[in-house]
Amino acid sequence: MKKYYVLFFFIFTVNTTVFSQFKFADADLINQFLKTKTYIVLEDVLFSDFNTAIREVAEKHWKITPYEIIDVATFEKLSKKSELSFLIVSIGEVTGLASSFSFNLLNLIMGHPSGDINKMKEIIIVPLSYYSEDDEEENYAYKLGGILNAFQYYILNYSGENWKKWINENKKELKNKELWLTSSDLVPHLTIEQIEEIYPYKVKIVSEKDIKNAVDEKLTHIAFMHKVGNNIHPYAMKLIISCADGKLLSFHYHKNTKNEPAGMSIKDFKLLIE
After folding, report:
1. Is 127 helix (H, G, I), strand (E, B) or coil?
2. 165 in the same domain as 152
3. Looking at the structure, do residues 38 and 136 belong to the same domain, yes or no?
């Protein structure tokens, strides 16, 4: 079994978490990427949500470049070619804190003559789930099509402006969307009735299968939640993505505490309408 490890940098303060190296590809790198063939690398593990889902998901959703699905051994042969691109799951390690932790990251990267994944130019990365050798990891397979759509929307539409401003502008589109969440996306005991008291737009609690189908059918009026983290993890990240085109409509994160556990809370729904 082989896993690829990358350095995933955060700055942690008492009350907030801020990306210290939130990298976006420039126009030259994106143009270079668009001329490539993308090699999607299967994980070298016995059980993998990614491996189970990616063949069907890529066929339905990956349209931006030609692609081929390969194993790790083939990746190691091809990774030194800078004219190729790769979609690969790695482990992003966060260290230097009271306790270290790791994410399963989905990386879209360019090849590099060294073959070192940490030297490969990043088009975009996103956490899929926390990584654990002992505990069951969060299921993300049902959202994978939506995440691939988000990658492609970003590549074709991000203009290089301030990313916070860009997402804040996108957030305005939530008023035209019905937000779909699973029960595990919410903090414990939060009901749909409580949400509807403060959130003026449509919201619905659905199954994982419902979200997968909405992404596959590109339902224009639906957006879904991609949450990373639960209460055994120190931080939670929450992304809202349009089912129709992968547009990122919201992104925020917080440190999990007894008073602010992982999951969408009343506070989070208030942030969506600010």
Report:
1. strand
2. no
3. yes
